[in-house]
Automatic annotation (TrEMBL):
Segments passing through the bilayer: 20-47, 59-78, 84-107, 114-134, 140-160, 180-209, 240-257, 294-312
Compartment(s): Cell membrane
One MF term in the entry's GO annotations: transmembrane transporter activity
Membrane topology: Multi-pass membrane protein
Protein name: ABC transporter permease
Lineage, top ranks: Bacteria, Pseudomonadati, Pseudomonadota, Alphaproteobacteria, Sneathiellales
UniProt entry keywords in alphabetical sequence: Cell inner membrane, Cell membrane, Membrane, Transmembrane, Transmembrane helix, Transport
Major location (coarse): membrane
Organism of origin: Sneathiella chungangensis
GO cellular component: plasma membrane
This protein's record includes keyword Membrane: yes
Length: 356
């Protein structure tokens, strides 16, 4: 045993592979430090307190979607509909704040802020449930199923107002809906309510992923679906949950954006799914399923958010911003594949050393 340990320790190839593997595992943190340092020097007013607050809110929106997307990708799926769910839920929120539910003949129901939030969250979960049913009951591929709901949800958002904006969502004190604006603009202990919600959702998702049987089942489904089914995991129920949770996260974003802007627009959320996928993959979630961490996803969301805001502050064209985000996604996938290959090589070398 001593001889084997000495041989392993003196093997420069094994040491270099271990060092490279460590760097790859920490790539998201390294990327975060790099983009933050770059824009701190290159972008004017980047480090101001006002910009930090605005940027944290933007990051939170990406993080909510990325958390839901992480669970979906871990199971080996994809959810392209989250951006459209954001737009749909924003329009539902705007409609409820302005009009309530009108049954005609002078009879209508008005809702307070908590009821509006609950209804909108249910809408997001419902669309996620539709995704789950298409995938589990009708065996539609996740890409196709969520692409279809992307169009349906976006069309429904446009139908709500014939493509127009719902403005002035200040609510009515008589119905208790005037506090809706606090969701996106309010703060507690000097920290925006949006960030508090992200902390709650992030910690809850991390606990679910690492400390509960459901979390272990999510990883098992992504790692080996047939093996998970044979071991007693209810695969269809797990998939239903992750898509419904993704819809819930998208509904939260729709609520927050409508509250921040005090308006709802049916085009809200376009291309948001790309940022969510980018943040999840950059945070170490494997597109092949079975691997990913919520903490890494949140760091990935910070990278994407800082990159987006920093490029805007530098005056970079929005067209180039899209190109750069695409390159980031490609680079993240390439690095993830490299990490898996090195891990496999190191594991084989360790098995070979133990067999000698």
């Amino acid at each position: 045993m001593t001889t084997q340990s000495t041989t392993s320790a003196s093997n420069p190839t094994a040491n270099s592979q271990s060092a490279l593997l460590l760097i790859l595992r920490l790539r998201t943190f390294i990327a975060l430090i790099a983009v933050f340092a770059f824009f701190a020097f290159a972008a004017p007013n980047f480090l101001t307190a006002a910009n930090m607050v605005i940027m944290s809110k933007h990051v939170a929106l990406n993080a909510f979607l990325a958390i839901g997307m992480t669970f979906v990708i871990i199971t080996g799926g994809i959810d392209l509909s989250v951006g459209s769910i954001v737009g749909l839920c924003g329009m539902v929120a705007g409609w409820l704040v302005l009009f309530g539910v009108d049954f005609g003949l002078g009879w209508s129901i008005q809702f307070n802020t908590l009821e509006i939030i609950a209804i909108v969250l249910c809408v997001g979960v419902f669309v996620g449930m539709i995704n789950g049913l298409l995938i589990t009951k009708l065996s539609v591929a996740p890409f196709i199923a969520t692409l279809g709901t992307l169009y349906v949800a976006r069309g429904a958002a446009l139908l709500f107002s014939d493509g127009r904006t719902f403005p002035n969502l200040n609510g009515n004190p008589e119905y208790g809906s005037d506090t809706f604006v606090l969701l996106g603009a309010g703060s507690v202990l000097g920290i925006p309510i949006t960030i508090w919600i992200l902390i709650f959702v992030g910690l809850g998702a991390a606990y679910l992923a690492s400390r509960t049987p459901l979390g272990r089942h999510i990883y098992a489904v992504g790692g080996n679906e047939k093996g998970a089914a044979l071991s007693g995991v209810k695969v269809n129920q797990v998939k239903m949950f992750v898509y419904m949770f993704s819809g819930l996260c998208a509904a939260i974003v729709g609520l927050i954006i409508s509250s921040q802007l005090v308006a709802s627009h049916p085009a809200t959320g376009e291309t948001f799914e790309l940022n969510a996928i980018a943040a999840a993959v950059l945070g170490g979630t494997s597109m092949s399923g079975g691997r990913g961490r919520i903490a890494g996803t949140i760091v990935g969301a910070f990278v994407i958010g800082i990159l987006s805001d920093g490029l805007v502050m530098m005056g970079v064209s929005s067209f180039w911003q899209i190109v750069i985000k695409g390159l980031v996604i490609i680079a993240a996938v390439v690095v993830d594949q490299a990490q898996q290959k090195i891990q496999s090589r190191v594991a084989l070398q360790s098995q070979a050393a133990l067999g000698k």
